[in-house]
């Protein structure tokens, strides 16, 4: 018969005595159980005793947590929290250095327990510790040279106890004096400070900044970024972690108008480069807490983009309109500008409208209207200008390449950039506060001062490449964006160490590869591997394949109209091709205009027996594609299918 659920079998220890095996009735008051234990060892005044876990935690058993006791737990009979707090409160004020040191060591350990902490705080223990830090340390300053190890340990245990007590959230951070803040800041600013003291001091400063607006202002006056940087250049990862935590806290709590100024200071002090060299690329693994702090810094840095992301373009603002003019100038060259005479005004407007269409804006007449939606607002235009200026060859290639395509197949650079910027902001959660548990930082964003802009430049080229691989039309725009998002997300999950490595990851994630991955993932799902599904698949597969074959033949019989391209890529003629109903002959011929329905066989002049077809070549193996590739070797032809630069200017005029 199993024991009652309320009975727990435990072992209880007492120093100098054999442990007792005992059954605890959880229905009985805890005080009655303690009295029973004390009576067994003939100990008087049971109210001065308590039970605690005998493991490393040493946490006290209370009425609130007693239900956590399991069968086989080892407990210890010890002094009650109130008694312990009273004794330690007296011992840490001892005139004996050794007694004080031992008491502070015990206090640092016991303060982790909220039950003890409450009792010690009730004795105004936190105030006593702050007084010891403010004035007590100076009392022993003269002894520091001859008793440095003792002094360092004493201060370390004092600060550890303070941190543990404050972590329980019982005492408000707003109660501390400027003298205490200055003292803690001095430990951080002083070179050669003991590691444990520095670590606790940084932890205290972080908590002050995060938990009190008034203390943020006071700490910001005492600590500068320049004073924190040297701690990042050391080899202790714990110190580096706490240092970045303090920087993050100052960043997070800074007023909006101060945040950009602080970011500029961080850039001047080369914080990114220092973190990359001494933290991310150091010869050691990054622990979870460091990863979290790097993630927080990454989020806070990207959140600086929120202002531009949520700023609409003012169509009447000439400075903003000049950015669009600059995009046009870089793409189509300033030489093509007409003169400023009044007679050319209409020509100028017409040319601008034509060029804005080539740039892929939705509003060809006034492209400023494309940037009135938030997000991404002006951030999209900032990205486009950065790409045009810093990756000019790629920018010109994308714009001119797409402006030469048939309208429905062009990848609109303007619209793509706006939607891509919005998508990247969503992926990086721009504008959202950092999560308290996430540690998803990306090393590549610490390799460049303009990492978001470079990220965009890589992704806009990916989008153009994917568009071509999908042979997309304007109706497929959202589908392309979904594929690009998947490509970017999959590449990011591999945590590339640099932007170049990210670019290489994307090269291996072509549209074809994405389709393979999707198919593989679908097939690997448990449902698809079950016996009934596999049996059904095997049974209907021949029927499905035959159906696909018939659908393809029917499509060939219906026929298709193609555009004919001459050497200058003009598309003013058509030709039609269809398979005969008996599937033996291909009928084809030229047409003057695009047909509205099927073209009869007898109107197509040329025939090709299917039996005479020896092979079908596609893609780069086609003769006209090989000719196109040869043209690339011609130094006068910068872009495949495009006239040389001089002719291009003539055409634009």
UniProtKB/TrEMBL annotation:
<dbReference type="Pfam" id="PF11841">
    <property type="entry name" value="ELMO_ARM"/>
</dbReference>
<dbReference type="GO" id="GO:0006915">
    <property type="term" value="P:apoptotic process"/>
</dbReference>
<dbReference type="Pfam" id="PF04727">
    <property type="entry name" value="ELMO_CED12"/>
</dbReference>
<comment type="function">
    <text>Involved in cytoskeletal rearrangements required for phagocytosis of apoptotic cells and cell motility. Acts in association with DOCK1 and CRK. Was initially proposed to be required in complex with DOCK1 to activate Rac Rho small GTPases. May enhance the guanine nucleotide exchange factor (GEF) activity of DOCK1.</text>
</comment>
<dbReference type="GO" id="GO:0017124">
    <property type="term" value="F:SH3 domain binding"/>
</dbReference>
<feature type="domain" description="ELMO">
    <location>
        <begin position="319"/>
        <end position="492"/>
    </location>
</feature>
<keyword id="KW-0053">Apoptosis</keyword>
<dbReference type="GO" id="GO:0007015">
    <property type="term" value="P:actin filament organization"/>
</dbReference>
<dbReference type="InterPro" id="IPR050868">
    <property type="entry name" value="ELMO_domain-containing"/>
</dbReference>
<dbReference type="InterPro" id="IPR006816">
    <property type="entry name" value="ELMO_dom"/>
</dbReference>
<dbReference type="GO" id="GO:0048870">
    <property type="term" value="P:cell motility"/>
</dbReference>
<dbReference type="InterPro" id="IPR001849">
    <property type="entry name" value="PH_domain"/>
</dbReference>
<dbReference type="Pfam" id="PF16457">
    <property type="entry name" value="PH_12"/>
</dbReference>
<dbReference type="InterPro" id="IPR011993">
    <property type="entry name" value="PH-like_dom_sf"/>
</dbReference>
<dbReference type="GO" id="GO:0006909">
    <property type="term" value="P:phagocytosis"/>
</dbReference>
<protein>
    <submittedName>
        <fullName>Engulfment and cell motility protein 1 isoform X2</fullName>
    </submittedName>
</protein>
<dbReference type="InterPro" id="IPR011989">
    <property type="entry name" value="ARM-like"/>
</dbReference>
<dbReference type="InterPro" id="IPR024574">
    <property type="entry name" value="ELMO_ARM"/>
</dbReference>
<keyword id="KW-0729">SH3-binding</keyword>
<dbReference type="GO" id="GO:0032045">
    <property type="term" value="C:guanyl-nucleotide exchange factor complex"/>
</dbReference>
<keyword id="KW-0581">Phagocytosis</keyword>
<dbReference type="InterPro" id="IPR016024">
    <property type="entry name" value="ARM-type_fold"/>
</dbReference>
<dbReference type="GO" id="GO:0005886">
    <property type="term" value="C:plasma membrane"/>
</dbReference>
